[in-house]
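Hi,

Apologies if this is the wrong queue. I'm a grad student, and the batch job for Pyridoxamine 5'-phosphate oxidase family protein from Pseudaminobacter soli produced an output file that my downstream script rejects. I'm not sure whether the problem is my script or the file. Here is the sequence I used:
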Amino acid sequence: MEFIRSRDELRAHYKPASDTALRKELRALDGHCKRFIAASPFVLIGSSDGHGNADVTPKGDRPGFVAVLDDVTIAIPDRPGNNRLDTLENIVANPAVGLLFLIPGMNETLRINGEARITLDSSLREGLAVDGKLPLGVVIVKVRAAYMHCAKAFLRSELWNPQSWRPRSEMPTLGEILKDHLALSETADQTDRWLDEGYRATMW
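Support response: The file is valid. Your script probably expects a header line. Output copied below for reference.
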């Protein structure tokens, strides 16, 4: 198997990007971007430590959980998780991030590239609290590029079409997977119950 090794070789294989694809990139958030973020309950954060180790993490909450602070700054609350801190450690080492905002049922997405920092600012955390529970921290992203992404990936995958969804019962539970991955002594049912209890206790 041969691999492409240069940008010129890559570009020679593909058609040039259209003028629209190039010009749609914004340097600040306009009204459409802000409205999209306000309606989105889910964002994926791509990061890297700068040494070839990359990570993508999902962040989800009630629609509008990501706050727009100004035209070039957004704030993403960090809720309780597994404390691996892969993305947060990457940000400390290398601030470059890529974000993908989704809205259920909408095939278009919003992409934002920028530079991230982590703050424990108490007033900001209080403003992003849910039911009185503050986020552990806040990821502040300075927007360098923002643009809408077309619907082809979602149309091809039929992601939002329930008729295309595989029945959940055809796939193992997380408890079953973890039992095999970690050789747990607990049964899969016990692990699933422990996970469910954890979800209820530490959602925010």
